[in-house]
Amino acid sequence: MFEIIYPVAVIALGFFVLGVTGFGSALVIVPLLSWQWPLAQVVPLVLLLDFAGCLLLGGLQWERIEARLLLRLLPWLLGGAGLGWLVMQQPAWANSPLLLLVLGCYVIWVGVRGLRQTTTSQHSLLKSPPFSGLLAGLI
């Protein structure tokens, strides 16, 4: 019975986190399921579940999506993803704990800003599509 209830409870908890914060389901699901299942099975499962969950959340919020902004961000998002792929091809960077530290600091910063409900100013560098798109794609 535990083999059935545990994965279902972990996935439910992960999607609860996704629903509340808008991100983080994989941060919850992957480590907890890795205790029971091989990582090679957990990661593809979580990617598929997250993809489906984000499509659902996107569909529920479709009227709030700014299509013009999304079109301006798309080339920068793809460029950032390409840059991230190039970085990960370098053996010195791919196994570096520095990247994990930077990602962890970024996640903490976003979480604290979300909890404090702070927003960026209109002229912030974070509001520029090239910077934010490259950063999001890289992450």
Question: Can you walk through the features of this model?
Answer:
The protein has 139 residues and is an all-alpha fold. The protein has two domains: 2-60, no CATH class; 66-138, no CATH class. Helix content is 78%, strand content 0%.
Q: Mean of the pLDDT scores?
A: 80
Number of helical segments with 4 or more residues: 7
Please count the beta strands (DSSP E, at least 2 residues each).
0
Structural class: mainly alpha
Cα-to-Cα separation, first versus last residue: 37 Å
Morphology: globular
Total number of distinct structural domains: 2
Uncertain runs are none
What percentage of residues falls in helices of 4 or more residues? over 70%
**Element string (H = helix, E = strand):** HHHHHHH
Biggest β-sheet description: none
Q: How much beta, percentage-wise?
A: under 5%
Quaternary class: single chain
Rg from Cα: 17 Å
Quick summary of this structure?
This protein is mainly α and 139 residues long. The protein is built from seven helices and no strands. The protein has two domains: 2-60, no CATH class; 66-138, no CATH class.
